[in-house]
Amino acid sequence: MPVKKEPFFWLTLSSAGIILAFILLPLVHVIAAPSMESLWETFNDKDVRKAIWLSISTSGLAAIISLVAGTPTAYLLARKEFPGKRLVESVVDLPIMIPHPIIGIAILSIAGRNHWFGRAIQSIGVEIMGTTTGIVTVLTFVGLPFYINTVKAGLESIPERLEKVSRSLGASQTQTFFRVVFPLAWRSMLAGLIMCCARAISEFGAIVIVAYHPMVAPVLIYERFTAYGLKYSQPVAVWLILVSLALFLGLRFITLPSASKAKTG
Amino acid sequence: MPVKKEPFFWLTLSSAGIILAFILLPLVHVIAAPSMESLWETFNDKDVRKAIWLSISTSGLAAIISLVAGTPTAYLLARKEFPGKRLVESVVDLPIMIPHPIIGIAILSIAGRNHWFGRAIQSIGVEIMGTTTGIVTVLTFVGLPFYINTVKAGLESIPERLEKVSRSLGASQTQTFFRVVFPLAWRSMLAGLIMCCARAISEFGAIVIVAYHPMVAPVLIYERFTAYGLKYSQPVAVWLILVSLALFLGLRFITLPSASKAKTG
Amino acid sequence: MIRIEQLSMDLPDFSLNNVDIHVREGEFFALLGPTGAGKTLILESVAGVGPVHSGRIFVDGAEITRLPPERRGVGIVYQDAGLFPHLNVEKNIAYGLRYQKKTEKKRLDWVKWLMERFGIAPLAGRSVENLSGGEKQRVALARALSVKPRVLLLDEPLSALDPAFREDLRNLLKELHSQLSLTCLMVTHDFSEALFLSQRAAVLNKGGVEQCGGVKDIFNRPASPFVAHFVGMKNVFPACGENGQVRVDCLNLSMPSNGRPEPKYAAVRPEHLLLLERKPVQDNQFGLFPAEIRGMVDYGIFCEVLLDYQDQTLVAAAAKSALMSMGLDAGAKVWVEIPQDRIHFF
Amino acid sequence: MIRIEQLSMDLPDFSLNNVDIHVREGEFFALLGPTGAGKTLILESVAGVGPVHSGRIFVDGAEITRLPPERRGVGIVYQDAGLFPHLNVEKNIAYGLRYQKKTEKKRLDWVKWLMERFGIAPLAGRSVENLSGGEKQRVALARALSVKPRVLLLDEPLSALDPAFREDLRNLLKELHSQLSLTCLMVTHDFSEALFLSQRAAVLNKGGVEQCGGVKDIFNRPASPFVAHFVGMKNVFPACGENGQVRVDCLNLSMPSNGRPEPKYAAVRPEHLLLLERKPVQDNQFGLFPAEIRGMVDYGIFCEVLLDYQDQTLVAAAAKSALMSMGLDAGAKVWVEIPQDRIHFF
User: Fold this and answer.
1) Which residues of A touch C96 (CB under 8 A)?
2) Residues 6+ apart with CB under 8 A from C126
3) Per the count of CB atoms within 10 A, which of A19, C160, C201, C251 is most buried?
């Protein structure tokens, strides 16, 4: 491009550079800071392994619950027009905007004995406070919007016409879903699962209210930090970052082909 | 629609109902639980007002920093094609996926004396740990991706052709930005500011590491919860929810016209 | 075979009012109308994949208004083919056979036969994404016919195709219709397609039926100014009749009424207006008058010529080479002749 | 006035190779070519808003290759008008005047004059979103001319318009060009636009210039099979010449060479092929042979007729009513006559 660059161009470039440095510098340092030795030691620490595993398993469970409960809702929002649709969409987005400790407080409030819902679930033996159930509930609450929004966008990109043709060929709506919609939407559903999982793994503020114990990884990191200081929390952080990055790369990998398709098409 | 409904249809409807209940029930309860009296009392509590104000002001500052630093970057990502663009986009998205306490630890790590950056800023008197500066840094870190992604999408919807025409008419790139791009993009920039603000207000995990004091509202709520229990944290939560909801409604209000336009256009 | 009774629907930006249509067994029926006239909505209501607010739909004498689409026995082919992008050609065609009571072998034979019949056997394993428009429509047709529907619905099946492919597929549709004695209901905005393919037609305008009948009849004898314009009779003038004569006052024309005593309009096709460089010798000729060329609209090889005569605008059509050899351009004066037998009164 | 020298660019899915174009002062020059031939890229490189990988561009003798767009004095009008949606008609037109050394009053007068000249004065306060396509292009033209550019670049200015508006704007462009003695460089894929508007033209194909010269010259004497097809000479056959004769072997034609001794191709326009129902009486006529109609492509009032003669395919064009009155359809046998003076050798 032989046209001379304006100051404007250099401004955009330097602002991008500053932002990249701002994001990468702390993250790279926190990964690079601990010695291999301390990383290895942390890896052999039973508590750390347990916490990371609890983080992964509860987040995964939250993602699966989102899949089961969220897919039909995403389909409804992608396909049907109805009065109040924007309101429903707003409610689905709500958990993104609510401060994290409040989410924990809200969930605890209705799980307690002074709310009919709390009494109902306690009578069948479900306890929220300080249990894995509670953690999964919190993580589903924060992860669900990410799943629904991702899958909704994916479903919207499938022409409704294909479903109409399928039904005219003799398939019921359920059969149409599994033979036409699912094969075309599984990629966005997988992306939604990962988004949901990643959001769930990163949660701390709501969990720390509902269940300090059993300890998920972010809580463990927080505890190590408050109890022993920065240096002792860093190795645990590295392991959790690696899990997050793996999810993140998986997501990029899954969305990459469809994004490049959208560009050329 | 006289065609008979399938079980599939009722499935989507009931799943949507369950999800709405799951999200709304706890939030409505947490708002409705405290008595007017305790709400008023909390409102008169100096600490509460100070914390909420700190939350609002630091989030607002983070949003403004995002505006200044993020707008050129969003413009670059929306307009230019360059090798490694996807990588830059991935880095910008990173803060969304990193567990919140780790963000705090990462920022603290490079702000300390055993990192050149920490020594550099401390030598000019900038302290991160336990300061408002630290809070703003953390909130900028978590809010920036939301601002950049929103503005980038907004800029992409403005035809580049308009800028080309403007320049052929004698306007420089900077003049073009202020006379063409900004008037068409200010709505998405405002939406980006609000998104960034809302994300920042909801942050807890990263702040609690970097700066337990001065107390932002989520930290105050957490402290009241751990020190005095659920009942004493709820009134504070109500006030913070109201702030979040105001932002949320503002966002919906701003994005509504452009969304309906996109539908008919 | 298909009977639509008092079909109505009310959508935010469109409404359909009490449409009655009857398609006979084995007939090729065309639903004509401009874009946005509600043609596709009618088609989808027959297939059961669109909204119906009131009215009833019968196929083969049985009411199907509330039947789910998969139990209606109605095939549908859309303008954009609507092939399943995740299935190859063969699997697209075989899609509906799972719901038919047939042995695996019979199914395979039937799909094979269909692909042979539609000339797409060599494409069997190909992804549908890379097919040409014409090939896609062939696959869509084969797929719709695979389940032997009682009725075939066609939604502008030719519109998205290049002119060359269009003719191909048009011939194929004509063949299929006569060979398989299919009952077809086709939506189109192109009258020449209807003229070629269908026996009867209905012209829709603003959510209502404007004229219904034999397609040649509509073409030659439109019953309203809208239909006249739609079938290409672009010159429409008010007319009146008395004393065994019909008159077009604005053109100073008068002729025997021939048993059509009360016409309201007279219409002529652009290609039936003759353009002459100078006044012919025999002076007392019928329908001859001077006009000025206001402009020309270029359609490639041929032009539409807009003519001003007194307060009237006439539209003529002529080959560009003829216009060039006459040296005609905007502003030129010409003589226009309207042959008496080309005027349609209604 | 505009001189483009050895312009090249390499994009992921397109490349432009060493294009040389020279537009003289006051000339209307057309850049012709099919979609994707790189026409708009050339235009944008002149305006300074597109990439240039090598080559040089001069306007008025001064090199502008590395100049920012706002200092080039080049106006540009895009196919979709590219109006600023947040400004009304008047403000769109006045946009560039801020960078001109003029008093406020002079600016207002000038904008007023422009709006009068372009017939858009009544729209001054209107939002540009609700204008018709033709009105939008008028505003875009007025805006481009408001800053008195040395050169006006037009990117398919007529393509997005309805046929009726198209003629309007075409006439306006012609008027403007002669009245203001503008230097115009227009990109188009429609040869008839170039024929009407421009004096000289260049035909682009696959990123290179295929033929350049007077536009009538290109129309009548295309120099390559690509250009022949592009200007509508759809019948192209190999030819050869010897002993003062030129021959088209595949059609068994032979005639005096008239000083064009070594032609490689012979070409005829479809509208110059005559279709006859039966063999005419005088038998020894030139260029007369029997053919079979393979198909017809319907273009509304008129048809292209595809003809098979031995191994060759010929394309003729005729009015649909003429074809109908002859009763011709696919499969029919006809006689085809090629008038000797209609054949172009190159």
Assistant:
1) 169-171
2) C88, C89
3) C201
